[in-house]
TrEMBL record:
Domain GH18 span(s) in chain numbering: 35-402
Signal peptide residue numbers: 1-26
GO BP term (any one): carbohydrate metabolic process
Protein name (record): AAEL002969-PA
Gene Ontology CC entries for this record: extracellular region
Keyword Disulfide bond: yes
Organism per entry: Aedes aegypti (Yellowfever mosquito)
Residue stretches spanning the membrane: none
Keyword match Transcription: no
Database matches in Pfam families: Glyco_hydro_18
GO MF annotation terms: chitin binding; chitinase activity
Amino acid sequence: MRFGPDVASSLALLSLYTVLINQASGLFDDSFKGRRFICHYTTWSRTRQNEGAYTIEDIPGNLCSHVVYNFVAIHEKTYEITAMQPEFDIEENGFRRFTTLKDKFPNLKLLAAIGGWGHGGEKFSKMTETRDRRKRFVASVVKFLHKYGFDGLEVVWLYPGNFERGGNVTDKDNFYYLIRELQKTFADTGRDWEVSVQVPADKSRLDVGYQIDALCEAADFIHVIGYDLRGWWNNFADVHSPMADRPHDEGNFVGLNVEHGVNLWLQGGCLPSKVVLGVPLFGRTYLLDTPEGNSIGSPTIGAGSAGEYTNEPGYLGYCEICAILPNMTTRWDEKAQCPYAFNTIEWIGYEDERSLRAKIEWVVQKRLAGIYAFSLDLDDYRGHCGEPYSLTRVIHKYYEETKKQSLVTWP
């Protein structure tokens, strides 16, 4: 049957309207694909001494829309998904204990993160370089999600195309192929599984490792790492999650900030409704060169002391930072929208409730999909400095207030 031009035009408009309504209806409170607050759980935090130990049973599922299990791995010979710490993941039922959180929090979505810094990039590079290996990996992921009851996979390849971490020049294309094949296979299962990708905010890394527009189309969500943009390795004191450029930013540090990093993905073709901003619940610490040199940009001579819980030089969880702040001088970087603290020896750049609210307001303004926080065990989870999970609660409050807002980006 043929229609006149007016009727055909009306039908086309009706079809477009239906598509847009269907898209919008999937972007509210109860939707798997709507606004989100993603919390991260790290398996290694369980090994801390005494009350510092953080277990699966400590996870506050009522404060998060999603929780991510860090990490699983790629088997170096079979190229299948595998446990990173089998003694915990399997022998101590880590996977199953994690996914049974749904018994207590039925609306909670649970993801597994594969990769991470310690995993390296070489296994990803080798797994993705042939279609047969990718196919084998994707099939193993489907079995894994079915077996343990996860709701999806977060791919944390740090970083495609980075030769120093085992990458090569074909990673950029092969990474896209992997995400596209995961997404298609997930859709074919008929399950509401999602595939998300954790990505950098550093343009130099994007140029060599990421097909921004294609990757954004293939993935359900893009998780932009909005932290570790500075550190003790740079030999000058600075906050590590600045919102914007400051007058002292020069050379490679120009544009190395949250706003510019997220905008690279948006300008590259990502829908805001697919972009999640990552925020840290930890600080980066430095040893000052001189007691008087305590302003941002002052020379430093190495990493600050390791914390009691985190036990890593140059790195402190907020649970450790909040306890020592009363004995330090605190300042605020207006352009960066971040606090810092110092004494005569050490300097700390970190996040607090004020800085997180600034990032939250920006996320809402940009109509992004939400925020992820790394990680629960770095917040003041025992409440030694006040209410437990003080930083997590700030983000949760935003999530509750804004989760029903439409995330549709209108042309």
